[in-house]
Amino acid sequence: MMLTSDKEESNVPLRAVDGAKKQIYSPPESLPLGWATDIILARAESRSALAAKRIRQLIDESGGSLSCSPAKECQTFQVNLSLVSKQFKKLYQMTMRAYSRRVRMRTAEKLLRESNHLNVDEAARALGYSFTSAFSRCFQKTFGKRPKRYQMQQIRNTSSEIAGESADKSDSVLQI
Fold first, then answer.
1. Cα–Cα distance between 28 and 24 in angstroms, integer?
2. Please, which residues have CB within 8 angstroms of residue 53's CB and are 6 or more apart in sequence?
3. Of 105, 147, 148, whose CA–CA distance to 127 is shortest?
4. pLDDT tens-digit profile of 77-90?
5. Burial of 104 by CB count in 10 Å (0-12 exposed, 13-18 middle, 19+ buried)?
6. Angle at 103 between CA 102 and CA 107, to 5 degrees
7. Span 23-43, mean pLDDT?
8. Are residues 90 and 128 in contact, defined by beta-carbon separation less than 8 angstroms?
9. How much is the pTM?
């Protein structure tokens, strides 16, 4: 049983339910059928892009540490981890894991270059590796050298630069 409203200008259909009149919702005809889906997907993509950017920031701040948790960030933004992973790859042309490994190896390189007293085991632990062998393999894959060899080479380069600077200073003294 279809009823019309008391107002003539309204064309919204009403129906009788237990003696009461209730409006039936009908979507506007001017909008395309998938408009709501498009809006929902755009919002989800926007949230996942924000989450991906935040995860990259966290990875950068932690030096690529394994303690960084993308899953927790996804919960904060209320988005699916797989959606954020796809968005991360779309934005940065690499997976979150590859980006984290790259940042971690850059941090490892800096640690080994700047800390003569730090051994490879301590560097591995500082970066969150449980096994030094896993750290060493990853470092060699990235830089083509084992971490200890890289560190020794950096020490030699630094000491030869210092020796070169002191030789330059003695030459300048002689020229005066």
1. 12
2. 91
3. 105
4. 788 899 889 999 99
5. buried
6. 120
7. 65
8. no
9. 0.64
pLDDT value, residue 135: 94
Q: Which of 10-14, 67-71, 171-175 has the lowest mean pLDDT?
A: 171-175
Q: Please report how the helices 81-92 and 70-77 are oriented relative to each other, as an axis angle in degrees rounded to 10.
A: 110
Six token digits for residue 76:
């904060």
Q: Is a pLDDT exceeding 90 seen at residue 1?
A: no
Encoding tokens for residue 169? 């200073």
Pick among 3.10.450, 1.10.287, 1.10.10, 2.60.40: CATH of 104-163: 1.10.10
Q: What is the DSSP string of the chain?
A: -EE--SSTT----EEEETTEEEEPP---TTS-TTHHHHHHHHHHHHHHHHHHHHHHHHHHHHTT-TT--HHHHHHHHT--HHHHHHHHHHHHSS-HHHHHHHHHHHHHHHHHHH-TT--HHHHHHHTT-S-HHHHHHHHHHHHSS-HHHHHHHHHHHHHHHHHHHHHHHHHHHHH-
